[in-house]
Every structure is written in C-alpha cells, then in structure tokens.
C-alpha cells in the first residue's frame, strides 16, 4: 500500500526531473542560438532569461490581460526580441532541434494570453523591435513589420498624406501582426472591408527557416495567413498593405442614452438600419453600466459612436432620414481629419495630439474575460431587456458589450475569399468583456460572462455559433497540450471561427508544417480532415 510519505517523495522526484529536463533544454537552446548565429554579439543582445534583470520587464511590458500576470502563470524559459530576420531563422532552427515550443508575440493582445503562455517548455519570440513602416504615397501602399502598432501605422500614414488611410482596429496599441492574422476590423469595414481584404503581399519565415513572399509561398499559404489566426503557419515578418482613399475631412460623434432615455428602443431600432445605411457610415453601440442621476442607483448607458467619411451636413441628412430617433444634432458632431479620428475613436482625451498614437502602453490595463457572437436577426426588445437585467448583477460592474455593424463591403466579399467567413447575412458582431480587479476571484466574473453567453444563444448565429478568432475564447475548445489533436476535436472551435474554411486551413497547415511545430491551444492542427 502506498503511504503519504512515498507519494510525496514520488512527486518531489518528478518535480526535480521536470526542472532538470527544462534546464537542459534551456541551456542547449541557448548554446544553439549562439553557435548558429552569424553574429554572436548581436544575438546575445536580444536574449533574456529568468536570470537577466530585464527579463520580467520585457515579459510584462506587452501583457495586455493581467489574468496572465499572476505568479501561477507559466513563464517562458527564454524571451527573444529579434532585431534582424536572421534572429528569427536561428530561433526556429534551434527550437526545432531541442524540442522547445515557440510562442510569437507582436502586441500581446491575445485574449487568452496564447502569444506568451504555454503549459509545456517554451520560449517567446517577441517582435517588438520589428516595427519598421515604409509608406509609398505614389502607389498607395505600405510595408509594415508585424511588431508595429496600429497607432504607429496611422501616425506614419498621416505624416505622408491627409487622404490615405488603412482599415484596421480602433485600439492603437494592438500590433499589426496579430490584427491582420485574424482579420482586423474597424470603423471603415462597411466601406473597405477588413484589414485582410487590403493585404497584397507578406514575408514569412516558415518552419524550415526559409523566408517566403507571396510568390514563393504560393496562393494557398497566402490565403491562410490572411485571417487564419496567428501562430499556426510561420512567423510573419511584414505585410504589404493597400492604402485606401478617404476625404480630407471626416465627421465623428458620440451620443449617449440611458435606459431612462429610451436606450432599449434605440438599440432595437439601430439593428434595423446600421447594416443598411450608407457605406461611408459606421455607428457602433457600446453598452455599459453607469451611475444614474439618482444618488446610489445604477443604470445602463448606450453610447452610439460613429465615423462618417464625409462632412457634417451630409451626415445630418443621412441620420435624419434613416435614424431620426437618435436625435443627432450638429453640436454632437466634430469634423476632423481621418488620422485625428483614430485618436478620437481610440478614446484619448479631447485635444490630444497625434503623438499619442506612438505610445505602446494602453490607456488602461485590465484583467478580463472576453467572448464574441454574430447576430443575423435583430434582437427583440424583450431579449435586450434580458441583457440589461444581467447587467444589474454585482459581477457586471466592469462589463461591456460592443455591437459593430456589418453590411456594405462586408456583404460583397464571398466568405471563402479569406479564412474569415463572417460576411453576408450578419447584421452585427458582438464583443463581450467583463473586467475585474487583480486579486479578485476571477471565477465569479468568468461564470457571469458564461451565463450571459448562454442566455444569448437564441439571439445569435447557430450551427455553428460563430465567433471571431481575434477574440480568442478557450471555452470553445482547445487542442491537446501534447500529442496530436484530431480534426474532430479541433472542429469544435475551428468551425466556429472559420466555418467551412476550417477544412482548407487544415489542409494548408498539413502541407506547410506537417510536424505541427507552430502550435498552441487553438492553432490550426496538422491532421487529415
């Protein structure tokens, strides 16, 4: 019979073995990096281990969800911040030789921390130093390295032109690499589609350490990397993007209404017009709990936030015709340049200069859980009121819903053109988040989010219940940490993100990375469908 002391001894021996095994991998990997690097001084300057005084600050700088900053979160054995493409090539070669898993981080906004967390021995390839941006005004294109943020991209475009833009997200600290890898939407999606719809080339380091462009990688792989999610097919160094023409003057507004000001009716009405109105106009709704005018009471507030690619007079005509219930007035509207609108929509204080776009540190750092949905039929007022009731619960203090309208260009692009399949037939997209303080029992808030998500099932897409891969959600399913993952197992989450495109993604993955070197909990698996 096994005694408690013998069990403890066994666990101690096992833990010692794991530590020794990890240490061996760590040392062998470091030796490999040095011996295979063309410039040993150069490579040594971008390697951080737990013994390095800068290790913690480098790791934590790009962690955007503090849920993965606890002492219990697995940490990388090594962090590499490449300065040159050769650093990426040698890192891949050495990781393959010594059985170390790679996690690639560009901006650190992965909702589930998959770009810097793993439960097997791993290292982080942090692309923070690869952030070059070259804008070609004459040809309306730009080459952008994956570590550059959207804010940096918007700033560099504005330096060269007042009438060129790029359709991407509204959070300026999100990096280009992660944004484009999963799709990338913003306040111009109804006019120009997603970021991936405006990518014309890319340069990628594959599993063999070879640098490929669109021509050499082939159209199947080029298709897969534009929306097939990051960390599956290789390390994308940079993207060539097509810039779009915008007016020199655009108009923005934010109009806020509470439940006492008919917010329920307005959201319901919004669902009937937001995807059908002029393609130059996007009106998003942001729903959160606020203090009411009555002391100590809470209410729900809906913010209607908009970007219109045109002047205020045109906007007012459109709004009075299509959405008069909102009561938009000239005083609510602000005319500005497109680049200035990225500062406004990014949530910076009024009067902020474009320089704030260069700051890689977010306005707020949060501990949160997120989910997503797609809506194909308007949610009834009764359905909306059920959401509001759940926002009265204690755990909803830091909750927020964002509804983003589709239609326009999004309905014109076939769902098989890129891996991102959520095109025609969607009225709007929902982002759910619930934030809470560090140290609080996260399970309470995550359970609240899951209950809200369950409540929403009758009102959103079905068979599959679709989700946006850039709002990663491990509740949908995940791959095995070790060993192979079957196509059936991966389909539990894969079909939700990619619908019928998932099968093609698996075929491409199996072709270009048959050993499944690039992998994480929701990477595309290398299996036979």
Describe this structure in words.
Helix content is 33%, strand content 20%. The chain has 529 residues and is of the alpha+beta class. The strands form 4 sheets. The protein has a 7-stranded antiparallel β-sheet with strand order 15-12-14-13-17-18-16. A 5-stranded antiparallel β-sheet has the order 5-6-10-8-9. The chain is globular and about 70 Å long. The mean pLDDT is 93.
Structure characteristics:
529 residues, alpha+beta, seven-stranded antiparallel beta sheet, 17 helices, 18 strands, 20% strand
Assembly annotation: single chain
Helix content: 25-40%
Strand content: 15-25%
- N-end to C-end Cα span: 46 Å
Quickly give the structural class: alpha+beta
Round the Cα radius of gyration to an integer and report it.
24 Å
- Catalogue the unreliable spans: none
What order do the helices and strands come in, and which of them pair?
Blueprint: H1 4-36, H2 40-44, E1 47-48, H3 55-61, E2 78-80, H4 85-98, E3 101-105, E4 122-126, E5 133-136, E6 141-145, H5 150-160, E7 164-165, H6 176-182, H7 189-192, E8 199-205, E9 211-212, H8 214-217, H9 219-225, E10 235-242, E11 244-245, E12 250-258, H10 263-273, E13 281-291, E14 298-308, H11 312-322, E15 333-336, H12 338-345, E16 367-375, H13 381-391, E17 399-405, H14 409-412, E18 428-436, H15 442-455, H16 487-498, H17 501-512
Helix pairs in contact: 1-4
